[in-house]
Amino acid sequence: MNPQVDPRTLLLESFRAAVAAADPLEIVAAHLPPPHAGGRTLVVGAGKAAASMALAVERAYQGKAKLEGIVVTRYAHGLPTEHIRVIEAGHPVPDEAGEQAAADILARVQALGPDDRLIVLVSGGGSSLLSLPAEGIPMADLKATTRELLRCGAPITDMNIVRKHTSRIQGGRLAQASRAPVTTLIVSDVAGDDPSAIASGPTVPDASTYADALAILKRYGAAVPATVQAHLERGARGEVEETPKPGDPLFMNVDNRMIATAHDSLEAAAAEFRRQGVNAVVLGDTVTGEAQEVARVYAALVREIRAYNAPFAAPVALISGGECTVTLPSGASESARGGRCSEFLLSLAIELAGTPNVHAIAADTDGIDGSEDNAGALLAPDSLARAEGSGTSARQKLDAHDAWGFFDAIGDLVVTGPTRTNVNDYRAILIL
């Protein structure tokens, strides 16, 4: 390792490299179809990257196409655009601003003709931002359902199956509404990069069913409003139309293009470590599970490397992506602060108990880890000792799911502000 680079700086630089690899302003133009010489080009979309993707489309098509459109992104994630209107709305819990934007998007898409073109910009966070409840479900009940699924720790893929079957726009229904050819650009934030799971797949065939959605609610013991339960039960009985399925001819007119993935970002981060003389091992971009449990597994691997230089010899960086979960017990939500990245890191700190020459970072590539304004946090060998010196108990903070409070107390939060992209969580453990 380059002796002039300190571990903290190297970890932060690796995270910046991961985020830069998914920057829409740099990557969107190469994936766009040629400018449409015929009718209108309508641009719609949703997600944490929606504003930067929209701006990238405007720059690529400047003076070459008749652009119009609307995209919806998270509050404080907007950017100034000229032809494509940017709406800010609620995430992770949907709100009325997102509902209105989704209704406007659907109406604009339904008005397109065969000579027009539809470009859809999809990124992580789009499921809650593009919320247009199915008939008979009030927005308040959709909000309550989202909160309940978040509380019970349902993974995002399962949450999105429920969302698809309580929506008028997701699960392929947006593509179903268009008479114009559809090109969708997708920034993936889900493990495995399944396009039907990203923003609940508004232009992608949906293989899941109403029965699947009901089974998910039962599996996690999710108590949802009566309107949601009744709608799903009617769908399972065949009384409500299913989402369009794989093989439906309507998708012959749809081109879904994956333009950024977690794996691409992890490889960019690995290249940064190697540039500084550190071996980098990508352990996978599909790591899921409870944040605390994942941390215990990683701690065991770190101890093996420190003791035996196996299966990898130090110096080495262990890099992974994916999306962990944090399941909050009843009554814990008021004291909980932080998110899955900082909770993973705090659990790792306790497991390693000050093991020398081990540093780590865990941060969300969208710049927001859970409930606060930080992307994640940094861990050093002396983190526990510094916390104890300030009167902060790591165990108490972890039991209260207040990882933010722990890292804030020792000044080790990573704060980037909105990155306007999202390829899920980034974790790197540097063993020297």
Automatic annotation (TrEMBL):
Keyword Oxidoreductase: yes
Keywords: Oxidoreductase
Enzyme class: oxidoreductase
Matches recorded under InterPro entries: GK-like_C_sf, GK_N_sf, MOFRL, MOFRL_assoc_dom, MOFRL_protein
Cellular component GO terms held in the UniProt record: cytoplasm
GO molecular function: glycerate kinase activity; hydroxypyruvate reductase [NAD(P)H] activity
Keyword Protein transport appears in the UniProt entry: no
Residues in MOFRL domain copies: 316-425
Lineage top rank: taxon: Bacteria
UniProt cross-references to Pfam families, sorted A to Z: DUF4147 (PF13660), MOFRL (PF05161)
Domain (MOFRL-associated): residue spans on this chain: 11-233
EC number: 1.1.1.81
Name of the molecule in the record: Hydroxypyruvate reductase
